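In this section we walk through a basic example: taking a raw amino acid sequence and producing a predicted 3D structure, encoded as C-alpha cells. The instruction is simple. Fold the sequence below.
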Amino acid sequence: MNDGTGYECGSVSFREVFAELKTFAKQNGSLVIPLNHPALCCILDSLTSICIETLIEKRWNEQMETLTTFKKDHGHCNTSQGTANRDLDSWVGKQRAFCKLYEQRRPSPLTVARYERLKDVGLLDPPNKWEQRLEELKQFKLQHGHTDVPIDYPHLGIWVLNQRFNLQDMPKERIDKLDEIGFTWNYNTRSSNEEAWNAKYQKLLDYIRNHGHANVPKSNEPLSCWVRKQRYEYSKFIKKKKSQINRERINKLNAVGFAFRLRPDHIPWEQHFEDLVQFKQEHGHCNIPRNHPKLGNWSVYQRVQFKNFLEGKASTIDQAKADKLISIGFLEIESKTSRSSLHIPALPQQMMLPSEEGNVPDEADYNWVTDFPFVG
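The resulting C-alpha cell sequence is shown next.
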C-alpha cells in the first residue's frame, strides 16, 4: 500500500526509515513528528515490522558480552584503560549513567534484568586502584618493552616504587600478577657498565668454544671471578633483591648453557664414573682424597647416596649405578656379606631424587659429610 509519499507500508528497510528520520530532523530541528505527518503511519509500521526492539536488544547483548570478556581478561570494568574499543567505552559510560538513574528511581532505559546483569559483571563495583595501576603498568610495558617506570612518571612511577618497597607484606596473589607480566622487583638504579659486561661475556664465549662447556675453573682468573659474580647476582635476582644482573643478561647466559646453580650432578654421572675408573687405573685403588679437584666431593656424595639407597630412602643412586661402583671396588661390601646375598630394595619412582635436574644439594651442602660408615 502506497500513501502517496513514496513508501509502501511494511516493506520499508531500516536504512530508508533512518534516512527519512534524519532528513526530518534536519528540516525541523527535532524528531517530534506531528500526528498529521503523511508518512508517520508508514514509519511506525515499518519500525514495527523490522522488530526495532529486537535489534536494540541484540546490540545491547553484544556489548554486554564484550564487557564480560573485558572483565575476564583485565579483572575490572575500567574500559577507559587497557582497550582501544571506543565504542565499548562509550557504551559502558552510558550504562553507568543509566544505573545511577535507576538507583535514584528516576526514568531510565534500564530494565530490572539489565541492571542485575551489569551489577553481576561488576560494573557498579567501586574502582580497584591497585588493579587500575596494574593495567597502566601493562600498557607501559607494551609501549616501552619493560617495567622500569621512572619515579617521576605521573601516578605510575611512585606506585611501582611502592610495590618493590612493600614486597614482604604483599599478598601472594598480587605478587603472582606482577610476576606474570615480568615485573622487575630488583631494579638497580646504579649505573652498570654494559660494555665491560659484554667484554667478559665474550671471553666466556671464547672459553666455551675452546672447552665445550661454561664451567670455568677457579684457576682461570679473572674470568672465574666474573662467573662467580654472575651466580651471586642471580641468587639476589631470584630473591627479588637489588641485583647487577637483569633478565636480558640472564637470557644471554642461558642461551650458551651457563649454569647459575652448580649441582654435584651437573657434570653427567657417567663422566664422573669414567674419571673414577681412570683414577683406579693410575693409582690402583678408589680411595679418592677429599681435595681431589674432580672426584673429592663427588666420591663422598656417592657413598652417602648409596647408604640412603640401601636404607630405602630417596637417593640419586639406582641399582645400575650401585652395580658399577661395586664392580670397580669403589663401594665394598663387608666380607661376611656376599654380593649375591646383598638385598638392595627398589625405591618407588616418586622417592627417587633427580639425577640430572631438580633440587639436588649443592656441593657445599654435602662437604661436611664425614661420619657415615661408607665414607672412606
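Looking at the output, two observations stand out. Confidence is low (pLDDT under 50) at residues 1-10, 334-376. The first helix runs from residue 14 to 28. In the next section we compare this with other chains.
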